[in-house]
Amino acid sequence: MRRICLGVVLAMVLGMATAGAVEYTTDDTVTDAYLDPEWTSPDDVIVTGAEVTVNNVSDNKTIGGIVIDASGANSAELVFTGTPTPAGKVLTVDGYVGLIGNTGNTAQAELTLGTGYTLNAVNTILLDNSLLTIGGRLETNSLYLDAMSSGAPDHPTPEGVFHVYAKVPVQSLRGCVGGECYDYPDVRWAIWFYQDYGFHTAYWHDDFGTAVSHGCLNLREADAAAVYDWLSHQDAVNIHV
């Protein structure tokens, strides 16, 4: 079962599991001795607005998830250095790799693994202004999501961990929220995860990246199709506004 942790650039921060997380908010250098035993699955490693260097990693490692969050004013980076012996060591992420840049102030999120490493991640989600480099090459086997639109302040997107209960390729959306009614026929790639909340296209506006929806997560056509293909029934969705 997959987990997906999503964020709207400038409007929403990537959702993350904080239980058992190892968090960095200031620059630090981590040794291999520190990695074992503290960076151990199912812990998440969260780097927010800091540059963290991990030196001399020579063993295969498994951790819960990685979040590199540069949605604030500062870039965020996690770098694994050292040449593994023998080459071909694997960093296994038993969850997700999420990189959140910030196009508003060009803050960049970056995860770099040194030469000789490969990355085995259940989910990889790249948001705007982010880089994932493995062994000197840019990783492209990822789900890339552009800016989304979450719920406007008077009808916000709910926070929490939910599960996909329905997927509908095309449907009409009609209803009223807070006295404001809407009627949108032929809405594509709807993925419902909580009551009447879900992901779907929004052909009626082009304000992606701002909080303007009735509570759902509006995506551009290509992004909605990618999420629709990627998520399955009962997959978890972690939303943090």
Description of the molecule:
The structure is a single chain. This protein is mainly β and 241 residues long. The chain folds into two domains: 3-144, no CATH class; 160-240, L,D-transpeptidase catalytic domain-like (Beta Barrel). 7% of the residues lie in helices and 47% in strands. The chain has two helices and 21 strands. It has helices at residues 32-38, 221-230, and strands spanning 3-6, 13-14, 22-24, 28-30, 44-48, 51-54, 61-63, 65-69, 76-80, 89-100, 109-113, 117-126, 130-134, 137-138, 143-144, 160-163, 166-177, 180-194, 197-201, 217-219, 236-240. The strands form four sheets. Strands 3, 5, 7, 8, 10, 12 and 15 form a seven-stranded parallel beta sheet that branches. A six-stranded mixed beta sheet has the order 4-6-9-11-13-14. A hairpin with a 2-residue loop joins strand 13 (130-134) and strand 14. The protein is elongated. Mean pLDDT is 76; it is low at 1-19.
Provide a brief overview of the structure.
7% of the residues lie in helices and 47% in strands. With 241 residues, the chain is mainly beta.
CA radius of gyration is 19 Å
Q: Give the overall silhouette.
A: elongated
Largest sheet, in brief, is: 7 strands, parallel
Strand proportion = over 45%
As a percent range, the share of helical residues equals: under 10%
Distance between the termini: 23 Å
Instruction: Provide the succession of SSEs.
Output: EEEEHEEEEEEEEEEEEEEEEHE
Annotation, overall tally of beta strands: 21
Low-confidence stretches: 1-19
Please, how many domains?
Answer: 2
Structural class: mainly beta
Query: Counting H and I runs of at least 4 residues, what is the number of helices?
Result: 2
The mean pLDDT is 76
